[in-house]
Each structure stands twice: as C-alpha cells, then as structure tokens.
Task: inverse folding
C-alpha cells in the first residue's frame, strides 16, 4: 500500500499508540500487586487479567520494563530437562511460546533452531542419554546423536576442539528456539495494560506490610505512596532476598552475576543453538547476525552487574576451540545480570508461610524460557490461592522437607 | 576485585582463590530439630551486605577469612581464622 504509506509518512502527527498507558497516581488499593516488571511479572499480570478476570492489578517496577534479567539473558528456549517436574513444566512453556506472537499481535521473532548440547566426556554422554530418555518418555523431541552427526550438521565446527576436548556426541533437541526478549516483556505488558492492569515504572518497593499477626499481607509501601492489597507476587530475580527480608522470610537463594557478550554482526552461518558444558559456552546467532554468547556463573556471591575481562577472555578462548575461524570477529558488547541461584537448580514458586505473599523466584540462569508458563501457573496460584499442579514440586517448603528436585544436570552449563 | 590478599602468601590474582561461602554458626546436630538443621544446610543470607567469608588460596591450600562488601566487591580485610592461627 504505497499511497497509504506515503500519507502516513507525510502526516505531521503519527497516530501510532504508545505500548502502555502512563498512570500518574497509584490507587489506594488493588486486588493484587505484582512486584517486578520483567517478563515473569508482566506474564503473571497478563494471565491474571486474561484467564482469571482479575484486572484491578498493579505491576510495580523500580526501573523500566524488562530492564533486568529479561534484557540480560541469552534468549534460549528449550525443554530438554532431566527431572519429570522440570520436563513437564518447561515443555508446557515451549508450547505456550509457539503461538505467543499471535496472542500478542506482536512479532517475537520466535525462531526454532534446534539445540545441540555437546558431550566431551563419557560421563557427559551418559547424562545426555539419560536426558534424552526422560524427554522421550514425556513425548519431547530429544535424541542422542554421535560425533559424525554433529559434524554433518555443523561442518564449520572443530569437533576435536583443538585436540584437547574432542566431542563424543550430543543431545539434539529439535524444538530448541530463540526469541526477541524485549518484545516478550512489551507483549505481555501491552496485553495486560489493554485489559486494565496498571503498570507503574520508576516505583520502588520500600516495605511490605503485614497485619497485626504478622502472617498476612496487608499492603505495600512504595516511594510513590502506600498501597493496600491482600495479595503480593514477588517476581524480582536478583532482588528476591531483599524482598523476602521485608516479610521476615529466609530462603536458600544466593545472588551470583551471570555474564554474557555479543559479537559484531556477521553473515548467517550458525543455525542451531550450541551448548557445551565442559567448555562453558552457549552460543546462538540472532536474526541480525550477532553471535550471542554466554558462559558459567561468576564463582562468588555479588550483587552487581559489572562485567569482567576475565570472563570475556575465557569465553572467547572456548569459542575459538569450537570455531577457530572466528578469531577475527570482534566482541561489541558485554553485560551481566544478577542470577538468584538455588541449591537444586530449580525455581522457587508458589505460596509462602506469609498468607497472600506469593513467590516466583530462584530463576537463576534458566528464567527466560519459563516466562509464559511461570506467568500462567503463578496467575493460577494467585487467583485460586493454591499452587498450580505443574509447580507443586517447586515450593519454598521443599528445602525444609529435604525434597530437592536435582535439576543440576540440565539447568545450564558448568555450575 | 581482581586481586586478593592471602594473609600468608600476600596479594595474588583472584583466579588463584576459591570462594568458600559466608561464615555461619553450625547448630549442634545432636540437639537441634530437623527444621533448624535444614535451615542451616540450605538457607543463606542472600541480602547484599559486608560479609565475613571463607576463602582458600588454591596453590598453597590456605583457608582464611575475608570481610567483603558484596555490593561493590571490595575486600575490607583478610585474616587467618583465630583458631587456625593458634594451631599453626
């Protein structure tokens, strides 16, 4: 429609609406308050409004929408986990991802690429086979492939890794995908906003109030005033321990930075997503041609998003083991996010000992792929005041009962 | 923090050190309840603060204490644990 386009371009005022309504004042009370305007918080708001009809909701964000770990992850989506709880949960997430663009009427650039987890040792091959069998049992498309198959799929890869870590095989997971992370936050935010949810950015939580007995949520104190509410969802990733301390709860969460970096754009050459636990590398190529690369967690607790040269050097060295021809490609950006790590590499979701205080945390290094399903299950949990069946294994209570989930083998690389 | 000062070996690159976690008091396993024990095993003080932590200098195997600000990643001081110092 060139004529329409021309008219649009020549108009002095463009009618393109804003993504979100700006609200100048907080209301005195809401049915629910969601702390944290990242993917998880906005997804919960979206499904609360869409599926449960609860629209008198405020999403409170200290900074700007999707500026925390939603913006800092490496956007990999997969469900090839190890425990039945994990596999079922992440598989539901992958299903939700696939028609999210239609749901939002917003292009998420959801791109199914296939996902290779490389095994360089016999023990890694055993774990891959185990994961493949668990996955198949739950109807998920994962299989163990040998080194020749890896070489055929990735002819540009040095499968001996310069001779010191030869690849013996890989777990191939065909549904592995990447998506545009900002659009996820905006899509959920816009969908929630249109259904009546209020999104308040630049609003910091200073305290959470409980009733006289101290066991029930009564309100939230922010830098823009007081809000009365009986339900609070805490979805703040790296700030979870601080929020928990406001209601006097303890948790096993400790905060470690997770760093990542991106190369200059190059011609498309890498279709699948490549992960190597032994080399501490995961990499995919975006639609723009940049290589998005990540590695393991920083080794000690830190509440900061600083980057280090050590990280860039060691990740670059391992990238060159796999892809020696990248030696001339430049790194253009490096960043970090604060990952809320749990001892069993599974999230902490659901109800807490404080009535009306719901937790969506412990997302460590595996939160982005779970954005849709965590929003869906947490909204169910908030609306019905009982945990969704998919998240029963992830309660905060499990540590007190010594019932950990043991997801370490599949959560990420090199922990 | 790119360098850390070991009380015995002096200032060395951070890559030579291992992090041993925050110093925490262990409840008596014979007398504490299961809940107290699970809280000790799993729970951590996750809030940013100046914390007293165990660190180990890998090549020499020296364990020592460091007081570190977990927001700025600055080490205020390092010293040998008092009991280790007297045993030495």
Result:
């Amino acid at each position: 429609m060139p004529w329409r386009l021309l008219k649009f371009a020549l108009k002095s005022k463009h009618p393109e609406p804003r993504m979100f309504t700006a609200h100048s004042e907080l209301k005195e009370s809401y049915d629910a308050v969601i702390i944290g305007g990242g993917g998880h918080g906005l997804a919960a708001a979206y499904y609360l409004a869409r599926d449960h009809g609860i629209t008198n909701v405020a999403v409170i964000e200290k900074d700007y929408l999707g500026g925390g770990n939603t913006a800092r992850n490496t956007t990999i989506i997969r469900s090839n986990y190890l425990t039945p709880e994990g596999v079922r949960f992440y598989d539901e997430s992958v299903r939700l991802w696939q028609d999210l663009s239609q749901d939002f009427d917003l292009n998420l650039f959801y791109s199914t690429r296939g996902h290779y987890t490389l095994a360089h040792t016999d023990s890694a091959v055993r774990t891959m086979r185990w994961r493949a069998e668990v996955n198949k049992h739950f109807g998920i498309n994962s299989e163990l492939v040998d080194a020749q198959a890896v070489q055929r799929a990735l002819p540009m890869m040095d499968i001996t890794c310069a001779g010191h870590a030869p690849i013996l095989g890989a777990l191939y997971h065909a549904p592995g995908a990447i998506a545009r992370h900002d659009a996820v936050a905006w899509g959920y935010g816009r969908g929630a906003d249109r259904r009546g949810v209020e999104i308040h950015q630049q609003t910091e939580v200073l305290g959470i109030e409980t009733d006289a007995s101290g066991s029930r949520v009564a309100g939230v104190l922010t830098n823009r005033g007081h809000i009365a509410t009986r339900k609070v969802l805490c979805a703040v990733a790296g700030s979870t321990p601080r929020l928990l301390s406001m209601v006097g709860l303890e948790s096993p969460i400790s905060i470690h930075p997770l760093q990542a970096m991106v190369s200059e754009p190059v011609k498309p050459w890498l279709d699948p997503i490549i992960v190597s636990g032994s080399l501490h590398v995961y990499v995919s190529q975006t639609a723009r041609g940049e290589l998005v690369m990540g590695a393991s967690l920083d080794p000690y607790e830190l509440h900061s998003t600083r980057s280090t040269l050590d990280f860039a050097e060691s990740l670059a060295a391992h990238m060159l083991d796999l892809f020696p021809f990248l030696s001339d490609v430049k790194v253009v950006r490096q960043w970090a996010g604060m990952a809320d790590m749990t001892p069993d590499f599974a999230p902490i979701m659901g109800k807490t000992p404080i009535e009306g205080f719901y937790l969506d945390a412990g997302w460590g290094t595996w939160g982005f792929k779970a954005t849709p399903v965590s929003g869906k299950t947490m909204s169910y949990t908030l609306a019905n005041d009982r945990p969704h069946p998919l998240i029963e294994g992830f309660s905060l209570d499990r540590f007190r009962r010594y019932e950990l989930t043991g997801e370490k083998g599949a959560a990420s690389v090199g922990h | 923090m790119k360098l850390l000062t070991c009380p015995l070996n002096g200032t060395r690159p951070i890559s030579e050190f291992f992090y041993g976690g925050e110093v925490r008091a262990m409840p008596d396993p014979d007398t504490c309840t299961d809940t107290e024990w699970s809280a000790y095993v799993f729970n951590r003080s996750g809030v940013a603060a100046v914390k007293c932590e165990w660190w180990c200098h890998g090549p020499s195997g020296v364990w020592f204490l460091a007081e570190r600000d977990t927001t700025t990643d600055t080490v205020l001081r390092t010293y040998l644990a008092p009991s280790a110092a007297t045993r030495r």
